[in-house]
User: Fold these one by one.
Assistant:
Number 1:
Amino acid sequence: MRNALKSMMFVVLTLLATSDGALSAADILPAAGITSGTSSLVISQSDLQNLQIRLDRIKQQISLANNLTQMVGLQDAVQSFINDVDSLQSSLLPEQKQLQAQLDVLGPVSLDDVESEKSDIATQRAYLSEQKTKVDSSLKTLTALRNNAAGLLIQIAGIRRNLLESEVTLRSGSILGPGFWAPLFSPLKEDRQRLSEFIQQASSAIKAAWQPGERLFTIALIVLALGVWSWGRRIAERGLTWVCIHRMPEGRLRRSSLALASVVATLLTTAFAMQLLFYALTRQLPLSPLIQNFADEFEKIIYVCILITGLSRALLSTRHPSWRLPAISDPVALAIQPFPRILAVTLLILVSLAQITNVTGMSPPAILFGRGLIALVVTLIIGTLFRRASRVRRAVAATGEAPESSTTLAGLIYSLAGFATVVSLIALLIGYISLARFITYQLVWGFIILSGFYLLTQLFRDSCEYLFSPKSPSGKALKQLLGIGDVRLEQASIILSGVGRAGLMLLAVISLFVGGVGTTLGQLFTQTFAILGGDGLRKLNIIPGHLLNALLALFIGIYLIRALRRWLDNEFLPKTDMDPGMCASLSTLFSNIGYALVILLTLSSLGIEWTNLAWIVSALSVGIGFGLQEIVKNFVSGLILLTERPVKVGDLISISGVEGDIRRINVRATEIQLSDRSIVIVPNSQLISQNLRNVTLGGSAQGVATLELMFPLDIDPEQVQNLLYDTYRENETILDKPATFVRFSKLTPEGITLTVTGYVSSPRIVGTTKSDLLFEILKRLGAAGIELAKPASTV
């Protein structure tokens, strides 16, 4: 009876556990005491074996690959394998959780189940345990396969790096030599055969789509693809432009949205046109592996060319100069307008021909000729662009017009691009063909990455300014919802904008070095996330590549810290309610922590593992014990000053006979500015260990203006008392509370001494106030005919 109740309870709870109250047959049968073979979601052993065979085949192809193009294709294959494994794991995880939940409902094995092994509960538990064991086994196998594939990605990256290093350092002959042009005028017989085979396979694919009965549909698809690529792009761009103009708020956000709309319209229409074109040519007969490889690479090159033209058109905006995001004058924009299109067409033609040599496996001279021709033409185009832009800028400057506003980063990028162009041309002349091709490809890739991220950065900043603007609907809603003021909204906008731009800048720097011409968006995301989420280097293995990474990490880290500190000092901290001393302390503390992190990142880039730093720490401990203890003591004292803040920048202090304003708190010492504008440098440890008088601590310190005057014995003391009191009370800087008072301090044969005391708002204005009071007192004493006592003559 109790077993039957358990069985009914299990069925009810299982029904309640499902989302829609319905169970599959695989769930109801065990609940009713009927077993079935396997769950519908359990992967069979044959499927797992096929995955293992697929992975082994990829490993074999990696061992036989000998050029970068093959490695890129294999990297795509490994990534596709990982995606398939992830999909299978995602489908099994809910099944695993459901089986575990059903086992939890049944509970552990009870005494009644042991006595009656053939009960419903025992049968159900055995069935569910068997199913969960199969699912766990499948998940474990899939995890192992995924880990192996992830290791292959790391190995492929290493092989690609080695192939690249070997290619760029190979000297193959100058472009001025006859050997470079030999594949063009007298190609080898095997190269002609491979080219003929490629043309034959391409013709077969075209003939399959051009066979009788299919020609009309093929023509319609090709015409439709061309229409989408040309007229469709214009229609989509005009539609998105209309949406931005009529739906986006007027201002900077509308301008950046218009630039992004131009790029998005170009990419979407091109992608749709490419899919139509490929469907028109491959719907009847699948492409051969050779033509398929070329088609994949050709598609990548088309997207690269479209990005070049789309980004340049969006950033130059020659038709609508008011929409232009970068600070480029109209003559310069008009002068360089045709060059991106020329560069895109050149890359489309030359790189496509070079890909034919790669996929068909032509001879090394033919491959080098294709690389050298690409590098030569692209270098000449970029060099001509720089020369024409410089000539137009000089002409504009000669007319007296205002020069273009430029930043240090933009000037640095422009200089590096010009230098790289010169190096590429020199490499072609002295015979380093692969190096020149690599430089030109990186120039093109750098333009795409920097232009794209510049556009995204501008859009993100403008979006933050609009969303948190007190005048926008979103800003008003946030004010009402959170009960904050305009200043807080502005602070939130600055913080979010700064964090977003810093993140985009970091992604741009990573993308510059992990990708290249032909890198897909998926590959770029995968490699970027691998870098951001990787464990780093694990051994102390300093090699030239690590040194380069360390230098890049050092320079980029210092630049980011300085940029963020300028953002804190100039944008964020001035918008807060903190006093200037607190702002300076926070800025200094941020920079100190940032530099420490940059040093750690640099050591990590060198390949130094933290466990290997024990000997460095031991050596430093000995040095600290002898010669560095004072430096360490001052450094720790500086951190205490910045955190506990017994003194801060702007305080008036007095220590060891030195009195002045704190100008700066550095890592080792503090700068104190005296009244004569001279600077006294005091070690931080003295500010912690010695008695220190902080005159302005808390911001409520008051100054005391006291004057002591001696009068002759024959004066009227009350008259003089009232005169002094009125003079103090009528002075603007003297406070009402505490009240001013006049005291009879001394009576001598030489005269009567009166002391008058008043309070001012700050100790810094005591001297100026006392001077003004003395001038006024002497003026009033002279008008009243009262003289000061004269000191007695000394014989």
Number 2:
Amino acid sequence: MGTEAHAPTARELPPSGPLAARPGKIVAVHLAYVSRAEQRGRRPAAPSYFFKPASSLAATGGVAERPAGTELLAFEGEVALVIGEPARHVPVERAWDHVVAVTAANDLGVYDLRWADKGSNVRSKGRDGYTPIGPELLDARVVDPAALRIRTWVNGELVQQDTTGDDGLLFPFAQIVADLSQHLTLETGDVILTGTPAGSSVVAPGDVVEVEVDAPTAPGAPTSGRLVTTVVQGDVPFGDVGAGPKIDDTQRAEAWGSREAAGLAPEPGPFLLTAELVDKLRRAPVAGLSAQLRKRGLNNVLIEGVRPNTPGATIVGRARTLRFVPNREDLFVSHGGGYNAQKRLFDAVDAGEVIVIEARGETGSATLGDVLALRAHVRGAAGIVTDGGVRDFDAVAATGLPVFSQGAHPAVLGRRHVPWDTDVAVACGGATVLPGDVVVGDADGVVVVPPHLVEEVADATIAQEEQDAWVAQQVAAGHPVDGLFPPNAEWRARYESWKSQSSKSQAPKSQAPRESR
């Protein structure tokens, strides 16, 4: 029990063919190469596996069928290990002794069928002919498992090339063998497919895929030879007895290797609150932003009841959120003292961010004081919005940090609140605020702008402000507001004419585009 199997004293390579007999099992590694992990954008901490049926084995020079009604058949050139002596609970340092041979394999799969497999790959990779292997075996006794090379060609073009050294593999082959052996017995003749490097992509009927594994630094530079597989089109449709093909852009991108290779538009990058957008938002009053958001169906984006603690203060920044729950003595003991959620957030806020605190509109206790305000100011925070109170009111104002609140209160935190969690959706002043939302505040109050609407509503607000300023000039000149505010067709035409003339008169002074002025 729990002991290492005896290392083989003599091992014979299976006769050519390349395998002596059909293996009892084929175990495949999901993700094993650094290049593939970087391509996929994820790097596992430990290897994970799936099984392929022995009926999926195919000889070199064979064919692989793309099923009727599918489009995403992908190749994966891999190094295959053949077990020579049973392995159970073997340590890493002796695991390679249980490998008798190395050869090339092609771990074919249909991405159209992955959606129903949940990682098992039974449908997508288990079809007949989807594990070509060979043509020749390399003696594991004469090759260094960390000095192998894997190459794949499609229609004669080299598309995959990697090595099995530390800079190539996430998990050395010996680790994979040892890991599997602690879960199951690896039996003589079993095959392990060790994962594919970057470069795997989609092939179509008529394409020819060739895979080769060699040991270029070993004596004689032994090689598996090229494992050749030709893709053909299947003509038997799927029935309605189980899961059939289904794909989306995510599967297309993974099958082809990238969105670009799949002919898809790049995914939009993360929203950035640029200096240009901040400048626009500072020129866009909260009242105007609120009106533009209402035109777009967003009526519940105002944080009610909060005002700037310092006259003239404004806020523009992305939200970091802090949630307080009603005080309960046992919960305050567990969550209120020490390095609690409140202190952690004030220590973590970054430049340009606004701390938004959910205090349930409770004004009978403070939600921050001068020390925390100073900490946020030192870290470059854009401000604080709380629907609760502020203690050390004058000292907080003296820090220069813009703070919007319900007003002053001298009580400490534990009177009404328990700091609970951070960077979650909060309800502040009756508005839902998500981490990353854009928060804008001025003398009229505070509004929450969803990131995807920021530039649109900022531009619309500034344009509206320009028009309203012109309307105010006409009213000051004695014109009645009827038909002017808002402008009817006649007044709108006058405004457009004025704007055009104003733009022309400014052009000689600056050659910069209007948007940058």
Number 3:
Amino acid sequence: MPTIGIKRDLLFKRLGKTYTDDEFQNLCFEFGLELDEVTTEKQMITKEQGEDSSLTSTASEDIIYRIDIPANRYDLLCLEGLVQGLNVFMGKAPAPNFRAIKPIEGATERLIIKADTTRIRPYAVAAILRNVSFDKARYESFIDLQDKLHMNIARKRSLVAIGTHDYDTVRGPFCYDAKPPKDIRFVPLNQEKEYNAEELMDLYSTHVQLKQYLPIIRDSPVYPVITDSNGVVLSLPPVINGNHSKITLDTKNVFIECTATDLAKAKIVIDTLVCLFSEYGTEKYTAEYVEVLYPDGTTTLCPEVEYRTEIVSVKKINKKIGISESPENIVKLLSKMCLKSELTNNPDNIKVTIPPTRHDVIHACDIYEDVAIAYGYNNIKRTLPKTMTIGQQFSINKLTDLLRYPIAEAGFTEALTFTLCSRDDVSTKLGLESIDKVPAVHISNPKTLEFQVCRTTLLPGILKTIAANKKMPLPLKIFEIADVVIKDPEAEVGARNERRICAVNCNKTAGFEVVHGLLDKIMLLLEVPWSRKKDSVGYFLRATNDPSYFPGRCADIICNGTPIGKIGVLHPNVSTKFELTNPCSALEINIQSFV
């Protein structure tokens, strides 16, 4: 949940009323927000950097309200959006009507996307804000909103990178291309010397803020770059803008471009920016189109600033929230949340118009939530549910808890390991040829090599735990009862969880009899008899071969005619790959069938 810092006096001036801290906290609660902290800029710097920070001497003593904003309410991430939302909520102003228009005179500006951009950041959108009046507070809010969007929906610029430029200092049409880093030369923002893009990687490698964005493009053979018709570099997304087109308090016309790996999020970002700051233009709540030309020859106009409609049921709204409001009252409640609504010919239906600032409304239930907020959560009467139910523990969790203690009493120590692991942990380290033969669920964008797939067995996690505790006296007897994730095309989500018990005995000798004894104890607790006849009643061991286990010392565990796991002595190669120097015996069974 992002937190924004708003200067109290400036906020009250825009709201046209002064509140006490408690009164404003109540207003925030009614609007679905939370006043997190009342502080000052000086106190914030002291808390973050300490009393000796050089910034504390220049920090102001202005009261700052730190307000928690829902993660999907991008329209409330700055003073302008918050004031607009609160004024509409309190009935002080109508919801604005946002529009994207073509220039009155001259042709529509163009942004030409080259084919090479598909190698790094394939999408771009743009817009122009005309005749904007900036002052210090508005300028700071404009920059702060970009930072909040970068950290929130843009996922630290990996999905979307925003560039804002003084339109009067450049000349269109603009070109979005991808070039080798040595071919990109310009003076970066707030610098005086010209660098090529390769040199910029070194220049900003120690920069407190920018160094985190360098890995997004650093290893690519080409870097994205936006230039004007004269070859002036506007930006090197997602790292830095050019100094030539930087915005100042004197800027009147703003050219906004967003490059992205996710086009939908880029459209949300540019809609949010132009809608919230178009109120400072001479023609309020309007933004100018930019024509975006794609490599395949297709064109589109940005920003879309699109209104859409949704039909909702009055009965469903009342039932879901637990109220009994008339359609007319629900229309008024929705209007307080910037959702223009009107009655239809069907008395049960309401037509709701969703503005381009409310990208968080993606389903009818989001509209129900806004009705509940406008009605007031505290005003909803508490009632007992019509059907009384008693909560109880899941059967598999109850069985898990019942088994934990006896296994611990048998001398095994419980471990809790990561559900994610590397591809090698569940494949080559266990003696398998490749990950392709493992039914593992892969993480699409893993952050580290240690967390690439969901574990398909508990064994690697326990072996890593033993390796990390090699200094402890032998024997090391570790167990875990937890879920593994198995890819399953027949499951609703393409995968299923499976609860398993895994135990490993590490000693100077493998000690197969230790894990065999534990298996017998578990089966005794589960009231499963040993099957002397090796038939479909009871459990028994059946010799098998598994690359993870020593040849001739591995067996399938058959329970009531179905294999439920394996037991045996681990292969020396497996022990070596997990950095273990002592032999190990292991047991792993699926307990899902015992529920």
